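From the shared-data thread, chain only:
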Amino acid sequence: MVHHPPDPNYLSTQYHDSANINARAQLHIRFGAHKQAWQCWVFDRLQLPSGVRLLEVGCGPGWLWSRNKARVRRDWHVTLSDISPGMLHETQLTLRDAPPVFAFEIIDARQIPYRDGSFDVVIANHMLYTVPDLPRALAEIRRVLAPDGTFYATTNGESHMRTLFELVARFDPDVPQWESHIQMDSFTLENGQEQLTAHFADVRLTRYEDALIVTEIEPLVDYVRSGPARDYLVGERLAAFRAFLEAEMAPTGAILLGKDVGLFTARGPKPDQ
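Structure, as tokens:
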């Protein structure tokens, strides 16, 4: 499969700050069926020894850390980075009362400004599918990791939220959806293993079993309009979309949406590296 690079103009608008991703996150936070919140589930699976040197690329608004703030150890050295100054500023504000272990840097994952082997752990939390040159970014991540370091990467499966996308298309097939702007299939639970094994000797996948049971219309509307559909779903068309969702929800009082997300853990350099 050929993967075209994401639209950089759309990305700079979409991720200028956390408003759009927060609208999407709220749907998962409020209506997720899993007993443990996503960021806590991910944090539980990170192996972070004392004195760890850690880099997160594409940290966004820093939710992984703000939602696990009480578990941050004072002997850690954590560099949080994002290509968006707006995102990074929000992260700094969110973590202003956290233990003083954080440094904040504007970094493009395709060109990480650190020496080889600078970090014991690198994290990429739902961001690799936004990177225009993913092989280059993965090579950079491997380079700045210590030989025995660990890379953690979360992403979606190909069926993630497909129920919602199909629902929107049934309302109106012309509603713009994310696939036309971000190549969500460039790094998935299905193809991530192959891409990571080009750089790491041991790659393992753990899935987060979850679904959404949505009982309110507005969070769904906010989710859909947080993407490229914002300028399309307005006025009478937006009103019609709300009425469509209400009709869908009426028989059972909820709309069930399937999810497919997980975490890759990658360790060890390839023998030829």
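The mean pLDDT is 90.
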